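Support case: zinc ion complex. Customer-provided input:
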Amino acid sequence: MGVPHLRVGEFTIYLLSDGLWRNDGGCMFGIVPRVLWQREHPADERNRVSLGLTCPLVVRGKEAILIDTGIGNRLSEAESEAYCHAEEKLSDGLRELGMEPGDVTYVFLSHLHFDHCGGVVRRDRSGSLKPAFPKARYLIQRGEYDVARNHPNVRLRAAYRHVEQCFEPLKGAIELLDGTGEFVSGVSALVTAGHTRDHQVIVVKGSDGSCFSHLADIVPTRSHIKPAWNQAYDLDPLRTMEEKARLLDKAAEESWWITFAHDDKFLAARIVKTSENRIELAEVVPRAAQE
Ligand SMILES: [Zn+2]
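Agent response - structure generated as follows:
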């Protein structure tokens, strides 16, 4: 069937995935009562909902820019069981495209939670962690990297406990970004904050004016296009709401493709704004059935 993809000007955006996983529904939908979210996202006996790990690969000629890396294969057995994530899948997607991990030139990380950066390393047969994309440069907001390494309190310490394990093997390949900017021609990182203090989304602009954005944890699933549906993890939910409204308005107006980092049904969508000012899905790219 091939990897689902979008065309945005001179870029092809391959919608790679690190497979499905599960996480607590209450954490994913914040203040929204379970009776509302469970209609679309039925919970299992451990209150977990099914989630995706979409990692777009932006290709232009020899450039291959990966956005987020999923969970990867570094979890312990107990963690894999808790999150219901068995295997690393990104390298399978690359293989399907006739590419190898060494072909990835840049990796943008929206933020450093384990479900976005766990795949920067791969555990080999001997059990040691090696860079998963050995020739890539890793583009991370400096503020995110600093907070992740020098967590100021217990809550953040838990959120970033994997960071040393993930970034120690990458050392010289990390490039720290200072705020919003176009860091690869046509590819910009936009600091939104909200979910974490320095969370960034990636925006790809084709020379024909068409546009794509990976909204990462600002709009993680199809249900999070609703204004008040935000994750309990957000450090500043009001900021998430503001940034989301601004980005979704623009996406609707300019007909952007957007990707959902964690939707279990749809990899990407175009949205519209109705006459009552509601954001709705217009066109979707569904996840391949075999996952
Ligand atoms: Zn996430």
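The domain at 5-286 is CATH 3.60.15.10 (Metallo-beta-lactamase; Chain A).

Case will auto-close in a few days if no follow-up is received.
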